[in-house]
Amino acid sequence: MINVADLISESNIPGNYFAPNTYLQGDFESGLIENRQGGRLLALPETLIRGLYSGLFAELGSATGLVLYNCGRKWGKNFFRRFSEEVGSYYRQPVATMEMIELVQCLKQCWKAHGWGIIEPNFDHYQQGFLVVEITNSGFVNEITAAEQPSCFIEAGLLSAFFSELAETDLHCVQTTCESLGASSNLFILGLKKRLESVSVMVEKGQTHTAILQSLTAN
Amino acid sequence: MITEIDSLIYQAEAEYLAQKDLGIFKSQILYLSERLKIYEQIRDQETEIFQHVINQIVNNFPDEPESKVKRAVKRWMMILRYCSMAMLANDSQYLEQRILEWLPEQIAAQHMQDLEQNLYGYLYKRLKKSLENEQFSVLQPYLEQSKNVLLNPKAALKPA
């Protein structure tokens, strides 16, 4: 027999931690924005992002992507730590023991609440060792014009670090389509670095995401 | 209610509120006390309401695994709690942001929709019986808003 009283005490699970009107809090007097646990947030104006990209490109040329990717990696590691702490303490459950669907929901809502766009991880090719992530309305590429190659370097690094921490395996991430190149969304493929070696070349040759994924999963 | 009062407060920045507007203010305060009563009633009857729902499920669907029933009941305990607060605050956005953008994919991924559809039916009927007609009509929009989003398979496929 199911005991209602027990269920009631177990049902005190809260809803969406990242609901934007609660998650983001600002203090006009001090000019600070914080999340609901008091963690400081930084607002990045588009001008700054644009300046960052063009400044780095002027200094580093073609190495810009690699530098930004590594910045993303570093950010991703810290992001995962903070994300796990916040989500784990709010839902009173370590992230490692959460169901994948709940964790993915948290990530999606977190991404949206921070204004980074809409993220949609796709686990269809999980068995073959690949994870596809789609991001629409990225907050990081809007202002880049005349790009020749996919340019969500920071996000690629961030995703790589986030999912590496989650999977406890070092995963690499390659972007295959980009909003800055006129695509409707940014698509990323994550997997072991060795298995993604051919992807960058295929992207440079202008192959489509579907073709790239097919060639990866056919092997 | 909170939003209606908010807009009156903005309006009062430029001028004294007219009798008609004050009437709205007054009626909102009356609604608030009504809504508080409904909220308290649901809170105090939670055990009884859900015991009834569980009995119905166990009797009509004896083959459903207990763990699945427990999970569904716990989820709807949470949804009713959020519906009650949204009703009290007269704020459907509260419900939308905290729950309705949050749960559909989880329900769909766990293949719980059929069970939850039935659970919702029992819960709806029980609440209708537990509350007076007028009280139920205040809560009803929030229940239906939840049902339309959470138990509609098409909505669950839509990206959040």
Write structural notes for this entry:
The complex is a heterodimer of chains A (219) and B (160). The N and C termini of chain A lie far apart (52 Å). Chain A has a single domain, classed as Trafficking protein particle complex subunit 3 (Muramoyl-pentapeptide Carboxypeptidase, domain 2). Chain A has helices spanning 4-10, 20-23, 46-60, 64-90, 100-113, 153-167, 197-204, 209-218, and strands at residues 25-27, 32-34, 40-41, 118-122, 131-136, 172-177, 186-191. Chain A has 8 helices and 7 strands, in the order ααβββαααββαββαα. Chain A is 46% helix and 14% strand. Chain B has helices at 2-11, 19-60, 66-89, 92-100, 104-109, 113-130, 133-150, 153-157. In chain B, helix 2 packs antiparallel against helix 3 (66-89), helix 3 (66-89) runs antiparallel to helix 4 and helix 6 (113-130) runs antiparallel to helix 7. Chain A binds chain B through residues 2, 4-5, 7-8, 10-16, 19-22, 99, 101-102, 105, 108-109, 112, 118, 120, and chain B through 46-47, 50-51, 54, 58, 66, 69-70, 73-75, 77-78, 81-82, 93, 97-99, 101-103, 105-106, 109-110, 159-160.
Q: Helices and strands in order, then pairings?
A:
The complex is a heterodimer of chains A (219) and B (160).
Chain A lengths: L3 H7 L9 H4 L1 E3 L4 E3 L5 E2 L4 H15 L3 H27 L9 H14 L4 E5 L8 E6 L16 H15 L4 E6 L8 E6 L5 H8 L4 H10 L1
Antiparallel strand pairs in A: 1-2, 2-3, 4-5, 5-7, 6-7
Chain B lengths: L1 H10 L7 H42 L5 H24 L2 H9 L3 H6 L3 H18 L2 H18 L2 H5 L3
Helix pairs in contact in B: 2-3, 2-6, 3-4, 3-6, 3-7, 4-7, 6-7
